[in-house]
Amino acid sequence: MAELRIQPKKSSPSPWLLVALALLALAAAAYFFLRPDPADERAPAPAATTVAPDSLAAPGSAPASPSSADSASSAAPVASPPPGTNGTGASAQLLQLREPLTQLGDRADLRDDAQVREQRDNFTSATDRLASGDPQASLRPGFVAAANLLLAVQQKAYPQLETDANNLSLQASQLSGRDATPAEQAQNRAYLSKAADLLKAVSEPATPQP
């Protein structure tokens, strides 16, 4: 009689164990794929620090009062030289004479004179390019026009200043109109000094003619 071999039956895994393993795998996958990236998180904005106005004051000085701050903000702006000038050159000095010379031509006892009025207009036109800050503008037209205006005023009401006015007009015609070399700068300063002196002299009331 043949011998029969009986092998023990292998137990199959529980289906619930397989389900639990599948859920665990899905949960792990969801965690790794859906978790937020730390690099994408915004760093919190730094808190703004407010500096008290008093802390800006120098040590030992009293803090500025609101009234003084208001007065400083409402103060009139300081006049600055026209663009293209350095504030001390011949161009800037000539432009400093522009307002008093035009006001002189508008003076009540002079503005009715056709020659004075014409020379005043010529001087304004000759210095317009300088006033606009044109670096290529020549100084010579302004020098000559200023001298001609002072000469017209002298001829109108100041006969005693005839020599000074004529000399200034001659000096203006000899200037190059540049302010680059030391020689040109010295000549321009000498002219402007004489022009200012003559302007001061004709600014005094005219002596009535006999």
UniProtKB/TrEMBL annotation:
The species this protein belongs to is: Hymenobacter ginsengisoli
Q: Where is the composition biased (Low complexity)?
A: 44-78
Region: Disordered; residue ranges are 38-90
Q: What is this protein called?
A: Uncharacterized protein
Which domain of life, per UniProt? Bacteria
High-level lineage? Bacteria, Pseudomonadati, Bacteroidota, Cytophagia, Cytophagales
